[in-house]
Amino acid sequence: MIVFTVVSTKGGVGKTTIAANISALLADLGFRVLMIDADVQPSLTRYFPITHRAPHGITEVVKRGVISHDCISNVGFPISESGRLNPNGCLDLVVSDAPEGALQDWLAQRMDRAVRMKKALRSPFVAENYDVVLIDTQGAVGHLQDTAVLAADLLISPVSPDIISAREFTTGTLDLLKKLETAEEIGMSVPPMQVVIYKLEKTRDSRSIADTIRKEHVTFRGRVNVLRTVIPHAVAYKNAATAQLPVHWINPDRAGLTMHDLVWELIPSLQNVVAEACQPYAQDIADPLEGESAAEVES
Ligand SMILES: Nc1ncnc2c1ncn2[C@@H]1O[C@H](COP(=O)(O)OP(=O)(O)OP(=O)(O)O)[C@@H](O)[C@H]1O
Ligand SMILES: [Mg+2]
Fold it and tell me: 257 Cβ partners below 8 Å, 6+ apart?
């Protein structure tokens, strides 16, 4: 099982969109995927249609330190021309049900707050039922974000393609890393961070941002890597959110291919595995490690 946490020190950068669409694509590739909405504003909870809403959500998961059946809601898509989910995969969700501040206050009282989410993910129920866990977080720092970050094997961090955001990213991320590294003193490891340049409008800009971030490699103590795949600013992502469908169904030839590039770069063993909806266009998918990625020529 692998755990990804989508994190950013800035709000509105595309965390929920990326978390939802990576999850849906992985489910469509036949994986059993659990999404966890660890944002007090329940955007991921509302992203896709819920066919079964469990009596509990993130509050009980964090408070109990266990994930069990009564915290698992199910996502289901209406049968449509856009696509149908791979029958081998599944897409489940731990909903956000924490009133603003309540869970943060509860965590603030706990000495074990940093490990609460990691502990919950160690539940046998999770190991038996899921291959991948994706956690969405809020844009603001807090105990809930900390515990979600420390539960991850890999962090995914979208950054906007302008130089000011890139500099803010550097400062914010350094602060985050500095804080997280204190967890190493209690035996926890800080997961490596994969940066995705997100909502790109012009390719040349993305290169200078990627360079700016890469130059910080030493400052970041080698913990941060910039992915080759770039997600363009494209109306398909908004249309998919409105339709409550995965973007690789709404726009299989462009956004669909970009999402494959991203997932292949995050999980290299998936290289050349293609969801049914995108198979007619699969020959257009570039190897993100060779030459230009499909995303870069998409703008
Ligand atoms: N690639 C894209 N191109 C254009 N618009 C996008 C793209 N991805 C996301 N958006 C839009 O950008 C807005 C913010 O995205 P999203 O909600 O995913 O960000 P967020 O980081 O989760 O925000 P928050 O910090 O509030 O949780 C949404 O309106 C979304 O539809
Ligand atoms: Mg969000």
Answer: 278, 281, 284, 285, 294
Is the CB of 159 inside a 6 Å radius of any atom of ligand 1?
Answer: no
Model pLDDT for residues 110-125, shown as the tens digit of each residue? 999 999 999 999 999 9
* Residue 254 Cβ contacting ligand 1 at under 6 Å: no
Q: Is 15 in the pocket of ligand 1 (CB under 6 A)?
A: yes
CA of 17 to the centre of ligand 1 (A): 6
Specify the pTM.
0.92
Give pLDDT tens digits for 142-157.
899 999 999 999 999 9
Q: Which residues surround ligand 2, an ion (CB under 5 A)?
A: 15-16, 43
CATH number for 2-284 (one of 3.40.50.300, 2.60.40.10, 2.40.110.10, 3.40.190.10): it is 3.40.50.300
The DSSP code sequence of 178-224 is HHHHGGGGGTPPPPPEEEEEEEES-HHHHHHHHHHHHHTTTTTTT-E
CA nearest ligand 1 atom 12, residue: 14
